[in-house]
């Protein structure tokens, strides 16, 4: 059993904790053994003193020595009727090192005295005071050495430790068996299900069925089953969407070719001699152009991902001017009759670090959406583009005086194919713009939208986070 496994560490810790618990029992047991041994000495000394008290005469010295030797003491003092009397005596081999009164000894003091007794290897002479049995006096006092008592205490302690170790091992084994059945086996079952699920996440048969009896493990299995069902459903939906996306891409590609051919024929209608045909031709061309743009945008979004930005320094005012010029031409070509005025407020010395082509696409999408929103009202409007910088970031604001975004567009603002800001829109423009800004480590957010217009804010950080900088010559 390895200590790197849960079962191995559980068994080791169980043994250690049980052994510590047994140690807490061993020391009080040794203390009780010491007190019992001292009380036994007092009883034997009292019995030895009865010989003298019964005869009321002095004993022979050899008999007195034998009585003291059997009681394992040097002398016996008995107090009766407030008179202290040396009943039995023999030479004491040394000074008295300590006195212990067994009549009033607290629990913790007894344990401390027992530990000191074991920790002191040299033989000492001690005085022990206790109460006589059968109320045969007021107190009895003996003197004795500690060698035999210490040896008996050590022998008793070792036997207790061996018994405690045996109990600790047996307890650890039993607890480990119980832990294996109650915890480790269910955990291994969960791990096996997770491994099988990881190998085939689309296979619904690998989803775990909660069977654990313990509430905590059952909750874990229920949560795992719910997660697996969610992931499996998401993977299946993703696979279906991927197949649908491939089909849409093929359809968009073929449809774009068909519409391109139709556009060529529609251009020739403008040369028709029929006035009605000439009036209808531009609208037909615009409709076909919008359809071609939708196909191209769908194909572009269907790519795996946008390329990583190639950063360079360029003049922000020049880029904004270029975007405004392109959108102004589209605004002038519109037949909706709504005039759109472009206002810019960008300092001429602001040099920004970004991918110029991608930022052009972002701004073009924002400005085009604003222009189309204003033209949809068939009323004049204004688009304002401002930009600047501070110590943390470069920022660009694009606002318009259009009608504001509808509720559905605000709810799914940056999600593709979730409804655009105008009738017939797909929402791909904002989704692509948000992705491009995120690739720069920045953020595109909606500041406001109401009946007075809409305003977006684009922020690009000055600090780069894992983006490789490529800085060619400055672009104006």
From TrEMBL:
The chain crosses the membrane at residues 6-27, 160-179. It holds the Pfam family HisKA. Residues 250-464 form the Histidine kinase domain. Keywords: ATP-binding, Kinase, Membrane, Nucleotide-binding, Phosphoprotein, Transferase, Transmembrane, Transmembrane helix, Two-component regulatory system. The keyword Iron does not apply. Its EC number is 2.7.13.3. GO terms for molecular function: ATP binding; phosphorelay sensor kinase activity. It comes from the Bacteria. It catalyses: ATP + protein L-histidine = ADP + protein N-phospho-L-histidine. CDD domains: HATPase (cd00075), HisKA (cd00082). It is an enzyme of class 2 (transferase). The keyword Transmembrane helix applies. SMART domains: HATPase_c (SM00387), HisKA (SM00388). This is histidine kinase.
């Amino acid at each position: 059993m390895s200590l790197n496994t849960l079962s191995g560490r559980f068994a080791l810790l169980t043994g250690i904790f049980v052994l510590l618990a047994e140690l807490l029992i061993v020391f009080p047991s040794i203390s009780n053994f010491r007190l019992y041994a001292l009380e036994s000495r007092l009883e034997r000394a009292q019995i030895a003193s009865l010989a003298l008290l019964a005869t009321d005469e002095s004993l022979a010295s050899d008999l007195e020595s034998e009585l003291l030797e059997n009681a394992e003491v040097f002398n016996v003092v008995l107090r009766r009727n407030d008179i202290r009397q040396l009943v039995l005596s023999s030479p004491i081999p040394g000074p008295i090192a300590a006195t212990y009164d067994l009549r009033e000894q607290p629990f913790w003091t007894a344990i401390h005295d027992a530990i000191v007794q074991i920790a002191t290897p040299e033989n000492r002479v001690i005085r022990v005071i206790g109460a006589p049995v059968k109320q045969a006096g007021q107190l009895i006092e003996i003197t004795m050495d500690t060698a035999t008592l210490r040896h008996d205490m050590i022998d008793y302690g070792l036997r207790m430790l061996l018994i405690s170790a045996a109990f600790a091992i047996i307890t650890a084994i039993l607890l480990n068996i119980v832990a294996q059945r109650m915890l480790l086996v269910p955990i291994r079952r969960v791990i096996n299900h997770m491994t099988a699920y990881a190998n085939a996440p689309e296979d619904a048969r690998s989803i775990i069925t909660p069977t654990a009896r313990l509430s905590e493990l059952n909750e874990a299995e229920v949560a795992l089953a719910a997660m697996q069902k969610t992931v499996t459903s998401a993977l299946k939906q993703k696979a279906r969407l991927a197949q649908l996306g491939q089909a849409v891409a093929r359809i968009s590609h073929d449809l774009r070719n068909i519409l391109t051919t139709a556009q060529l024929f529609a251009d020739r209608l403008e040369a028709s001699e029929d006035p009605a045909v000439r009036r209808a031709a531009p609208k037909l061309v615009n409709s076909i152009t919008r359809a071609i743009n939708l196909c191209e945008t769908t194909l572009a979004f269907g790519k795996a991902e946008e390329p990583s930005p190639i950063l360079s320094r360029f003049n922000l005012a020049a880029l904004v001017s270029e975007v405004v010029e392109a959108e102004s031409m589209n605004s002038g070509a519109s037949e909706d009759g709504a005039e759109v005025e472009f206002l810019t407020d960008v300092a001429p010395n602001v040099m920004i670090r970004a991918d110029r082509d991608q930022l052009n696409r972002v701004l073009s999408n924002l400005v085009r959406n604003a222009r189309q929103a204003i033209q949809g009202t068939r009323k004049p409007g204004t688009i304002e583009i401002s930009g600047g910088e501070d110590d943390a970031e470069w920022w660009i604001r694009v606002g318009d005086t259009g009608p504001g975004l509808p509720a559905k567009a605000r709810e799914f603002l940056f999600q593709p194919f979730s409804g655009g800001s105008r009738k017939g829109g797909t929402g791909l423009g904002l989704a692509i713009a948000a992705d491009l800004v995120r690739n720069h480590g920045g953020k595109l957010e909606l500041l406001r939208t109401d009946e007075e217009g809409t305003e977006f804010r684009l922020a690009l950080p000055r600090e780069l986070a894992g983006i490789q900088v490529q800085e060619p010559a400055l672009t104006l």
